[in-house]
Amino acid sequence: MPLLYLLHCFMPNAILLATLDQLMQHWQSRSLLPTTRPVNDVEVMARQQGVTLPADFLALYQRSNGMAFTYPNGVESEEFYFLPVEDLRSKQEDLLVYSGRGAKQITTTVTVFVDYMHRSWEYGFITAESGPGYEIGIMAIGGEFKVITNSLATFLSLYLEDAMVLYDYRNPYISDL
After folding, report:
1. What is the pTM of this model?
2. CA 176 to chain centre
3. pLDDT of 65-77, one tens digit each?
4. What DSSP designation does 97 have?
């Protein structure tokens, strides 16, 4: 494998680091003070939860242990709750995964890292179907996973913008009759 590809897989990129800075500023402006953790602690805690975190997520959790600072019922103004690493939920599921490429029924491991409106729906990541990496999606309807992006930096940017795509969980392959 080319060295550049390997570096991309195991080291957070400049865009992600800049987005994490914006995220920390956003949370601090709302008096949500993040708790930091050494990357080794993050890896150990994730392993204890049965979760393998991509490098991007390790960088996130090293900068902030989710929204542990709002526990037990706190969420920020947009009703998002970024789970602390010790609360990540990873489970094997049969999912209808849909994106701009189509829809496909698969059995995969999904890791939930964000709750929305006290678990009204969740955001998680799965291993990408085509090639290395992961896909982040909305899980609002049981057994369905709508892909939003394959980049944590993009997901966080959408969150910071309060972008409508984060709320659109409809399956585009089923018509609303």
Report:
1. 0.85
2. 28
3. 888 665 545 555 5
4. E
